[in-house]
Specification:
It is a single chain. It is built from 2 helices and 6 strands. By secondary structure, the protein is an alpha+beta fold. It has a single domain, classed as Hotdog Thioesterase (Thiol Ester Dehydrase, Chain A). A 6-stranded antiparallel β-sheet has the order 1-2-4-5-6-3, with helices on one face. The longest helix is centred in the middle third of the chain and has 19 residues. It is globular.
Length: 147
């Protein structure tokens, strides 16, 4: 599995760091169109100690956050005039559905497709798949920081 952005390049685009960086690698991207990124889910994730003891399940909100982070990278790649280090804020989500649990050992493929862009606002459709099976989906909204 080749990547177009390894973890060090991912960190150039996202301000997140451990334990909140939820994208390990970008596998493919077509600026203005779509991105496919990877999140490896391991038992070492700090949230598993409490969600749930004896039956570890990745919280759904973190799956959506992983989608939003992949979408943030797509936004930067689609808007090269934005400098890495600029901030894009996740502002909303619609049509959220969770289809299957994500557990340690899973690899989440994050697929985001660019929707409308108006001035500083962006809309994307996201899917999280594990072994080709849909785990979650959502429509995500974001906005560029004015700073």
């Amino acid at each position: 599995m080749d990547s177009i952005l390894d973890i060090s390049r991912v960190m150039e685009y996202l301000p997140h760091r451990y334990p909140f960086l939820l994208v390990d690698r970008v596998l493919s991207a077509e600026p203005g169109e779509k991105i496919t990124a990877l999140k490896n889910v391991t038992i070492n994730e700090p949230f598993f100690s409490g969600h749930f003891p004896g039956m570890p399940v990745m919280p759904g909100v973190l799956i959506i956050e992983a989608m939003a982070q992949a979408g943030g990278i797509l936004a930067f790649l689609s808007n090269p005039e934005r400098e890495p280090g600029s901030i894009i804020y996740f502002t909303g989500m619609d049509r959220v559905r969770f289809r299957r649990p994500v557990v340690p050992g899973d690899q989440i493929m994050l697929e985001l497709t660019m929707g409308r862009q108006r001035s500083s606002a962006i809309m994307m459709d996201g899917r999280a798949l594990v072994e080709g099976v849909l785990a979650a989906e959502a429509r995500l909204m974001a906005i560029w920081s004015k700073e």
